[in-house]
Amino acid sequence: MDGKDITDGDDTPTSRTAQLAEASRDLLEAYATGVPIAPLRETIEGLSLDEAYEIQLLQEEQALAEGRKVVGRKIGLTSLAMQRQLGVDSPDFGFFTDDVVFYDDAEIPVEHFISPKVEPEFGFYLGADLTGEVSLDEAIEAIASVHAAIEIIDSRIRDWDIRLVDTVADNASLGAVAVSREPLDLDIADLASTRCALLIDDEEVGAGTGADVMGHPAAPLAWLATTLSKRGVHLKKGDLVIPGSFCAAHAVEAGSRATADFGQAGALTITFGAGPTVKE
């Protein structure tokens, strides 16, 4: 970004940098108030993908300034259908902090979100740093353990009216992450063929295999490591990465119970309530 001046609706000169900072603050306020904002592509003329990631980075920096710890990354738009819907040909990514990570049997208040949906995913804990141009084989080798995960996606953009720049700026629409404490009972060589079903209140509402996630669920991990390295950020040993959903997201409400069911390999269940957060 060059920090050049632009002109807003009332002809007042406003720096581009200030506009991006204001968008970041608006998104953070939406988290706090539960009141979504208009699509950023409509409020910031010509918003680019790099600028959208800058807005996301400003939120990450604010989280760190508040003492929160970034413990992992999410990868979104890993299915061809979602890429076509948003008119893109690659995934996107976001970050998550320790305070939005939940575990088995957590009860999570829906009031923490605006319009939550759930997606079943793998959760990869890394056993090594990943930097530079990372191959699929290198990504697979770096996975220390594979867990059941559920991503709760949410949108601070009104009515989920998003395009790529909107969701990227909004931290790739991340709400929270749930992950099983114990690894799945599967061979890492079987990641692509492993089936996972999404159950809502014990009813299957979607399913897929690892191959539905960019052909192999470690492919998004390789893409993310390479992409972050170009931005001067590196995945670290101990990081948790969720590489993308097995199937379409499903909306949840107070009283919903969501399960990522990997059959004999294991499962993860969380519930949604209206009371205080229960992490364990």
TrEMBL record:
Record's keyword terms, sorted: Lyase
Gene Ontology terms, MF aspect: 2-oxopent-4-enoate hydratase activity
GO cellular component terms listed in the entry, alphabetical order? cytoplasm
Q: Which residues cross the membrane?
A: none
Which ranges carry the Fumarylacetoacetase-like C-terminal domain? 93-270
- Give one Pfam family, short name only: FAA_hydrolase
Q: Gene3D superfamilies given for it?
A: Fumarylacetoacetase-like, C-terminal domain (3.90.850.10)
Q: What protein am I looking at?
A: 2-keto-4-pentenoate hydratase
Highest classification ranks of the organism:
Bacteria, Bacillati, Actinomycetota, Actinomycetes, Actinomycetales
